[in-house]
């Protein structure tokens, strides 16, 4: 992996992670779209877990656990990957935040809220994982599970995206059915482009991809556009036009 795809400007003593397609990373300008697309969901959840004990399963690089720790009483970020775990442990430090290296299928800790984002599509036994999630939640607890929408992730007409890390990719009704086997209440939200990303989406429909190529503006435009994307350029909407959503977020209660 060339240096271009390593995290930039890490704190002293924190080894940068390489972008390998399995997880998104902050501090890689070319990856900023995907990082903000994931971070916006963490921030939305953080606004709803104030004062709670939270488990963040498959936390990856750790940025999401750190976002949750700004409001939660305590956060445990769990990931099996040794490099990601070490990076998270060294980079994100707070009195109410710790990281555990373990498999999502095996980890257990009682919690008030459990976060499991962009990972259900990676696991061999999603029913087993969701059953364990339900067991970890205290009475009245809430689980948050997100995954890409295969209808917008995969190329038009394809059955799946071709991402080698994905075991199964979901449509809205498939995710709802999976979650309903383990939780009494299932609310689905869709993530959509907003602000500048919505404008860019409309521009592409109007032929912007042909214009920037013809004018040889592709690299200069996107070199500026992608790093400027923020979480405000995405919006979560409950039960709204889910077939067109980028990602789904399931809010689950027993």
Summarize the structure.
With 254 residues, this protein is α/β, with parallel strands linked by helices.
The global form is globular
What percentage of the residues does DSSP assign to strands (E)?
15-25%
Biggest beta sheet summary: 8 strands, mixed
Find the count of extended strands (DSSP E, 2+ residues).
8
Number of domains: 1
What are the secondary-structure elements, in order, as H or E?
HEHEHEEHEHHEHHHEE
- Poorly predicted segments: none
Number of helix segments? 9
Query: Mean pLDDT, nearest integer?
Result: 94
The computed structural class is alpha/beta
CATH topology title: Rossmann fold
Give the full name of the CATH homologous superfamily. Answer: Vaccinia Virus protein VP39
CATH class annotation: Alpha Beta
CA-atom Rg in angstroms: 18 Å
Strand order of the largest sheet: 3-2-1-4-5-8-6-7
- Examine the secondary-structure arrangement and name the CATH architecture: 3-Layer(aba) Sandwich
- The portion of residues assigned to helices is 25-40%
Give the termini separation: 43 Å
Structural account:
The chain has an eight-stranded mixed sheet. It has nine helices and eight strands. It has 254 residues and is an alpha/beta fold. It is 33% helix and 22% strand. The chain is globular, with a radius of gyration of 18 Å. The N and C termini lie far apart (43 Å). The protein has one domain: 3-Layer(aba) Sandwich (Rossmann fold).
Which terms would index this structure?
254 residues, alpha/beta, Rossmann fold, 8-stranded mixed β-sheet, 8 strands, 33% helix
């Amino acid at each position: 992996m060339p240096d271009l795809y390593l995290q930039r400007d890490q704190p002293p003593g924190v080894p940068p992670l390489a972008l390998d397609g399995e997880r998104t990373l902050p501090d890689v300008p070319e990856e900023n779209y995907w990082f903000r697309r994931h971070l916006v969901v963490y921030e939305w959840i953080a606004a709803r877990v104030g004062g709670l004990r939270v488990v963040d399963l498959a936390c990856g690089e750790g940025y999401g656990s750190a976002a949750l720790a700004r409001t939660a009483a305590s956060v445990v970020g769990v990931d099996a990957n040794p490099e990601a775990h070490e990076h998270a442990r060294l980079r994100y430090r707070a009195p109410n935040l710790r990281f555990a290296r373990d498999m999502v299928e095996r980890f257990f800790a009682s919690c008030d809220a459990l976060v499991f984002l962009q990972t259900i599509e990676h696991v061999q036994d999603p029913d087993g994982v969701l059953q364990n999630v339900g067991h970890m939640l205290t009475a009245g607890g809430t689980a948050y599970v997100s995954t890409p929408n295969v209808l917008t992730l995969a190329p038009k007409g394809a059955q799946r995206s071709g991402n080698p890390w994905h075991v199964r990719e979901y449509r809205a009704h498939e995710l709802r059915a999976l979650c309903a086997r383990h939780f009494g209440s299932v609310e689905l939200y869709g993530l959509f482009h907003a602000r500048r990303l919505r404008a860019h989406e409309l521009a592409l429909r109007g032929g912007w991809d042909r214009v920037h190529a013809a004018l040889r503006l592709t690299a200069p435009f996107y070199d500026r556009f992608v790093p400027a994307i923020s979480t405000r350029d995405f919006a979560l909407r409950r039960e709204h036009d889910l077939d067109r959503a980028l990602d789904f977020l399931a809010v689950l209660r027993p």
